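Please fill in the sequence for the structure shown.

STRUCTURE ENCODING:
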């Protein structure tokens, strides 16, 4: 019972930090006192759950990582079980982001600024997703012409494009209607550009010779 209560309080601290960030501030702009006041405990009780604010930030990164993995699992299911198109995969991902807005709001803001230890943890999470995606891409018949280093570049482009699109997906008013649809369409277009390029990619030497040939014929 006591252990369960402790877990509930720990989760409440995480939820409070996310709720405070919805006011427009970054994680580094939120104080320990604000979080404990939101939860209804004294500041010293915070240290029973986290040694410092950075540790709380890292716990949030782990939580958003688990949520992101679940979103990717749903997309993978669509891709490999139902041979879903890019549009369907993007729709699944966007629906998940909207349903878990607070977590993805944290990720969108902290990936470019804030505490360096949190930013580094997000970068490491991003790299894990890239590594996992390379393994997935190797299973796709359409990508069999690509070498391992090309697949790594392709995965890097996809993951970083998705991460960079998060602010557009979570900022539209009321998270619905034309603004959200525009953000979703833009993400889909970016991914189509990437996959179209990958379809015809035959290596850097081929690309350079093709470019030189096009220049000479102009």
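FILLED IN BY: designer on duty
SEQUENCE:
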């Amino acid at each position: 019972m006591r252990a369960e209560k402790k877990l509930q309080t720990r989760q409440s601290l995480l939820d409070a930090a996310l709720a405070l960030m919805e006011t427009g501030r970054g994680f580094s702009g939120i104080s320990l006192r604000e979080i404990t006041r939101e939860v209804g405990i004294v500041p010293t009780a915070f240290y029973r759950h986290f040694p410092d604010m950075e540790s709380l930030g890292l716990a949030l990164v782990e939580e958003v990582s688990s949520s992101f993995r679940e979103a990717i699992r749903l997309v993978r299911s669509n891709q490999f079980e139902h041979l879903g198109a890019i549009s369907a995969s993007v729709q699944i991902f966007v629906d998940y982001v909207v349903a878990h807005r607070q977590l993805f709001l944290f990720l969108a803001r902290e990936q470019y600024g804030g505490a360096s230890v949190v930013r580094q943890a997000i970068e490491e999470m991003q790299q894990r997703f890239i590594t996992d995606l390379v393994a997935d891409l190797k299973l796709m018949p359409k990508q069999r012409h690509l070498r391992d280093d090309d697949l790594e570049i392709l995965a890097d482009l996809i993951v970083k494009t998705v991460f960079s699109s998060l602010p557009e997906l979570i900022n539209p008013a009321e998270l619905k209607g034309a603004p959200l649809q525009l953000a979703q369409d833009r993400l889909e277009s970016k991914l189509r550009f990437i996959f179209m390029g990958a379809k015809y990619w035959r290596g850097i030497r081929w690309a350079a010779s093709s470019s030189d040939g096009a220049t000479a014929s102009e």
